[in-house]
Amino acid sequence: MREEILSVGIDIGTSTTQLVFSKLTIENLASSFAIPRISIVDKEVIYRSEIYFTPLKSQKEIDGEKVREIVEREYNSAGIATSDVITGAVIITGETARKQNANEVLQNLSGLAGDFVVATAGPDLESIISAKGAGADKISEDYDSTVVNLDVGGGTTNIAVFKEGKLLDTGCLDIGGRLIKIDKESGVIIYIAEKIKELAELKHIHIEEGVKPSLEALNIIVDEMVKLLEESVNIRSKSNFYERILTNKGIKKDIEVEYITFSGGVADYVYKMDTEDMFKYGDIGVLLGVAISKSNLCTKLVVKRSIETIRATVVGAGSHTTNISGSTITYTEDKFPIKNLPILKLSEEEENSGYENMVKVIKEKLKWFTLENELQPVAIAIKGKLNPSFVEIQKLGETLMAGMEDILKSDFPTILVIENDIAKVLGQTLYRQLDFKKQVICIDTIKVENGDYIDIGKPLANGRVLPVIIKTLIFSS
Prior knowledge:
Elements: E1 2-12, E2 16-28, E3 38-48, E4 52-53, E5 56-58, E6 61-62, H1 64-78, E7 85-92, H2 102-110, H3 123-134, H4 136-142, E8 146-152, E9 157-163, E10 166-173, E11 180-182, E12 189-192, H5 194-202, H6 215-232, H7 242-245, E13 259-263, H8 267-270, H9 285-293, E14 302-303, H10 312-319, E15 322-324, E16 330-331, E17 338-345, H11 348-351, H12 355-366, E18 370-371, E19 374-375, E20 379-382, H13 390-403, H14 405-409, E21 414-418, H15 423-433, E22 440-444, E23 453-456, E24 467-471
Parallel strand pairs: 1-7, 8-13, 13-14, 17-20, 20-21, 21-22
Antiparallel strand pairs: 1-2, 2-3, 2-4, 5-6, 8-9, 9-10, 11-12, 15-24, 16-22, 17-23, 18-19, 23-24
Helix pairs in contact: 1-2, 3-10, 6-9, 12-13, 13-15
């Protein structure tokens, strides 16, 4: 069985807005006599939009109507209707994710992105998506090595480290090509981000809004930004300003990187694109890219060419955020799609801490999702034991029921996300223990963490699998 589905990725970044359409091929890889095992076997980008400057009403407000016009125009150009799209992601990234009306824009766009697509990106998720779009994970697997991807955009630099194909860590810095904007006609600075103002003052570099800067001053501030990037990948000792420039966190100090890739709008100028006009975009992006290409980032580490640069996030959004559940799953009613469902994840230690303690932990963690004394819909996630016995499944069901007492009182379904392949037997057991009176959704072969949110889409492959998007919703002020 082979089935093709259409996926969209829409990226609204600090600097640019763009979208891609990808064709995903799913197939049953099991033999005729085995339990079906549905996987995504091929991903092909079939349409790339124009790249637009993200329309803003002000430095803190996205122009939602103009963003919608861009997306509608590109749907028409591609000859694709919203009803054709099955899955994918709308991604608001970088500084733009911190604009005042980011959530409102997402809601307005969700209707243009098919029945299933609603997504957002905090720094960690954006780092992973852009790195996968750049191909850093594949390079680390092919070279049996540790690879870092720097996605250098307009407002932030997202960092993801992969070792032998597996994600090691993520980070994000407030460093980007549009943190200083320059009027192309007059050469006067029209915007400087607050943290860059602080950095300039700390280093006694004179730049200010409303004044034409010297090229020397801009190069000095760009060099200081690059030094902070070197610190971020552990090839330069941390300065006092490093913690200040972090968006949320950096990568672990003990990670040793061998290879480096670059993505984002600045990456083309790291990879030696034509730099005749240093201010062609009205910002310092070209200067930043050239400075990176001459830095320790490209001499102390082995540089690998990315599959995608400026389009890495949007390609990643269209092709890499979607997972497929296991085929031995339970859902007692087709009430999909379910969107923006927060995850309550138990650690392996908590799972193995005994019946009474596990019940206590679930009840305590459910308080995280109580708003004005009302419990919000939530999914319980566990790893689950491989090949459990009948008695162990019965006991696990009873334990979960006791811990989820408050969920069982609510009118939303009981939803479980299991890492190991036991969802069918556990879901059916739980449904029986609930006297068939409560809707149960139990999916497996999906790995999530606390802080993640998931969307569960409409069933595919004749109802045997469910598409799942894992995401992190972080809107910083």
